[in-house]
Amino acid sequence: MNLNKKILITENDESLRYSLMEQLEIEKEFTAIEAHTFHEVLEHLKMKTFDLFIADLKLLHANQKKFRESILMSKSKIPIICLMDTNDEISVIFEERVNLYIKKPIRFSELLREIKNQISNYEQSRDLVIKIGRYDFFPASGEIKERGFQKVIKLTEKETDIIKLLSRANGSYVSKETLLKEIWGYNSKVTTHTLETHIYRLRKKLEKNPSNALIVVTGTEGYKLMC
Fold first, then answer.
1. Can you give the residue ranges of every domain in the chain?
2. CATH number of the 130-225 domain
3. Contact call for residues 64 and 96 (beta carbons, < 8 A)
4. φ and ψ of 149, to 5 deg
């Protein structure tokens, strides 16, 4: 089970890209995924929910049209940190979506601080959208919407916390013990029956057939989201 923050990195300088990935992995709270081309960036963003995108400004400049058609128009508002050379020019196109520009050479301590700040701000904003099968999940409001439909599914605070934690596992199982500890804390009055009741209610809201769950799935290792 991996509950780390997921960061997508694309950087033309291969040695810098590898260095950033290694240093982020050392921090233990991040999982860094690299993309060599802008096409790979778009494929990753379609398949996974990321917490942050670190991009080489030159690569964005070379793909302005695709940037405008995909990332600029996307519902996803994940924070973007652009790495730039001193003589790089910032295009107006990027102003709307890029959260921060950092000039090279990069001090990793500064970058790390900004990564944590940007992710923290994003998690507390109404821009955060997590894809779950045919649904879009909005943690800030505790709402889920099925794509193509107007109906809004309201979740309780605990249901929202459960979905947030399961989504962090990126398709891996999360044990009942971990869910109880992370969501309810060390409360001896809370049992697995309490968790199972919340899962049952979640399924009634999300599943077409709650007795044959396809979204919130049970296994011997616990629960997982089929994203």
1. 5-123, 130-225
2. 1.10.10.10
3. no
4. -130, 155
